[in-house]
Write a structure and sequence with these properties.
Elements (H helix, E strand, L loop, with lengths): L1 H68 L4 H15 L4 E8 L2 E2 L4 E4 L6 H14 L2 H11 L3 E5 L1 H4 L7 E10 L2 E9 L7 H101 L5 H13 L2 H33 L7 E3 L1 H16 L3 E6 L6 E3 L1 H17 L5 E10 L2 E8 L6 H4 L19 H11 L3 E7 L3 E9 L4
Parallel strand pairs: 8-10
Antiparallel strand pairs: 1-2, 1-3, 1-6, 4-5, 5-6, 7-9, 10-11, 11-13, 12-13
Length: about 500
């Protein structure tokens, strides 16, 4: 029995020993896991803190970028930069100042970013410090630091040993002998956040880019306004040149126009003299007829006088000739009217008068204006097709056609032929003006539309006609080309887009 109990005790002790070892191992494992969890928690905590810092920094930089990038002016760029930076550096009092020749250009701007109740007193104190700030020492410290920023106890810039504040100064940019600075004053040095200052320092490049961009925008805007003014002046000058050349063309054809008007006016006046004589005879005949009709018994002699006067004056011829005179006179006056209307259209200075027009009519009106220059020695051959209308200015296109017709005349000193042709092809209206004159040298073809280039003798051409004609055709979205061969004539081909109706 004793031996049995002894074995049982031994077995129990061995069990206790195993359980104790198992418990120790479990406690060691638990302690190891707890230590791992603690370290992991600390790492996560530190990472969360870093993430929070990074988030704050990123939010600051993104907010800063947005605020300064969308600012309307350089002043607003700087204001947004200081405001956003001040909110980020929340324990400081911000200052902004501009130095020029060692002095403040304007009084420093001071603003609070702390939100403390005693900000009023603190701002007053900082204002006093800024009045005493030595700008020479500020620039000297920037040079010594070899950077655009420095952090110093404020007493080193004020010479006040009792002052415990710190100042962080950063040079924003320079422009026209001016230095722009931003500063942040910490009344308590213990609240300095060096990491935030480093982040703020990196934002300086963003400001420099935003300032440069804004200055570039203002410069581009200024240059755009200058170009717009120059374009307006150029447009006005071109309009004056166009009108001047038009008046020169009128001067060239004035004598011919006067002759063209004088002819119909002359025979109309002559016809009116005949009508005046005819009217006297007709009035006398009517008077005799009226006497007889009023009292036939008493004025039988009126019938004899009526018959005698009718025969003497050949009244039958008069009645026929009056109709012919009126018809011819009407045609002559209509001819004058057409010439005057064509001249009025030609000389009208209305660059906005664009509308649907018929090029065949425009060519006919142009030909009327120069007809007296051509009708004696030149044969004009028309080949006008049924063509669609175009959008154009009749007066300006008349100027082109008149100029080309006058050029054709000058190319044929002793007379010749001129062909006027119109066609419609592939949504385009084509006009061709051809002569069989002296032609143009190949070397001159490329310079033909250059301003002031002319092959005519001095005093005959201005050198602007073809240049202005080219500009007019381009303004009508058209094209003008020239084909020429010496001693075989010249052809000007002009194309316009037809009016889609």
């Amino acid at each position: 029995m004793t031996e049995t109990k002894s074995k049982a005790i031994q077995i129990f002790e061995r069990r206790l020993k195993r359980e104790k070892q198992a418990r120790l191992q479990a406690e060691e494992l638990l302690e190891s896991k707890s230590r791992e969890l603690y370290l992991s928690h600390e790492k996560l905590k530190q990472q969360a803190e870093r993430d929070q810092v990074n988030h704050q920094q990123l939010s600051f930089l993104l907010g800063l970028l947005q605020n300064i990038w969308h600012a309307e002016s350089q002043k607003e760029v700087i204001e947004n930069f200081l405001k956003t930076s001040g909110e980020f550096l929340c324990n400081a009092i911000g200052v902004y100042f501009v130095e020029s020749n060692g002095e403040y250009k304007t009084p420093p701007t001071i603003f609070s970013t702390r939100g403390d109740d005693d900000d009023g007193e603190a701002l007053t104190t900082v204002a006093e410090w800024m009045e005493r700030l030595d700008l020479g020492l500020v620039k000297g410290n920037l040079v010594d630091s070899n950077t655009h920023n420095f952090l110093l106890p404020l007493k080193e810039l004020l010479g006040d040993e009792t002052n415990t504040a710190y100042i962080y100064v950063i040079q924003l940019f320079e422009s026209e002998q001016e230095c722009h600075f931003s500063g942040f004053i910490y009344l308590n040095g213990n609240k300095l956040d060096v990491l935030k200052l480093q982040v703020f320092e990196s934002s300086r490049n963003m400001l420099a880019i935003a300032i440069e961009r804004k200055n570039s925008e203002q410069m581009l805007h200024s240059q755009f306004q200058e170009l717009q003014q120059a374009y307006t002046k150029l447009d006005e000058t071109q309009e004056k040149l166009l009108q001047s050349e038009k008046m020169a063309s009128i001067g060239t054809i004035a004598a011919g126009i006067a002759h063209e008007i004088n002819n119909p006016i002359g025979f109309v006046l002559s016809n009116f003299n005949s009508l005046d004589e005819y009217s006297c005879t007709l009035i006398e005949l009517l008077s005799l007829a009226q006497r007889f009709l009023n009292a036939p018994e008493r004025h039988k002699d009126a019938v004899l006088k009526f018959q005698k006067l009718w025969e003497e004056e050949d009244a039958d011829f008069l009645t026929e000739d009056i109709g012919e005179i009126l018809s011819v006179s009407k045609k002559g006056l209509l001819r004058v009217k057409d010439i005057v209307l064509g001249l009025k259209t030609f000389s009208h200075n209305g660059k906005e008068d664009y509308g649907p027009m018929d090029l065949n009519e425009c060519l006919e009106d142009s030909l009327q204006l120069v007809w007296n220059e051509l009708k004696y020695d030149f044969e004009v051959l028309r080949d006008f097709a049924q063509i669609p209308r175009i959008i154009g200015n009749p007066g300006q296109l008349q100027q082109v056609f008149v100029n080309l017709l006058i050029n054709a005349k000058h190319a044929m000193e002793s007379g010749g032929k001129i062909w006027l042709t119109t066609r419609s092809e592939e949504r385009q209206v084509l006009v061709s003006i051809q002569d069989n004159g002296c032609g143009i040298a190949e070397d001159n073809l490329n310079k033909l539309f250059d301003p002031f280039f002319t092959t005519k003798p001095v005093g005959v051409g201005t050198g602007l006609g073809l240049s202005i004609s080219y500009s007019i055709i381009k303004a009508h979205n058209g094209e003008i080309e020239v084909e020429s061969e010496l001693n075989n004539g010249t052809t000007f081909n002009i194309s316009f887009l037809e009016l889609l109706e």
